Amino acid sequence: MYCSKCGSDIGSARFCSQCGTPQAGMIVPAPGPAAGPGPAPQIVVVRAPKSPGVAVLLSFLLAGLGQIYNGQIGKGLLFMIAYLCSLGLMWVLIGFIIAPILWIWSMVDAYKTAERINQFGV
Q: For the chain, which residues make up each domain, given as ranges?
């Protein structure tokens, strides 16, 4: 097997020894009934890579969509609700300050989260 990021030969390792990238689809199987006592099996689930550009674009269209794309549903809905409330507060002028801050924060957070998912798989 070869690393999906740098192309190094990794054999059957779960992580590349050159760049440290977790390999997609690598799951440690649970021991069968004949395995006997021992440490509990570990199951490694690696998320599919996310495009930071798509995450930013979605958050540009509506704050919170980038977070939902990254798999953070609750955080995305929270961003959406806060952003829509701040748009509603524009009639008292405070929304003109809060809405752009939430919008930019949502785009930056979506980008950094997609990068973190690609780098660490979480």
A: 1-46, 52-120
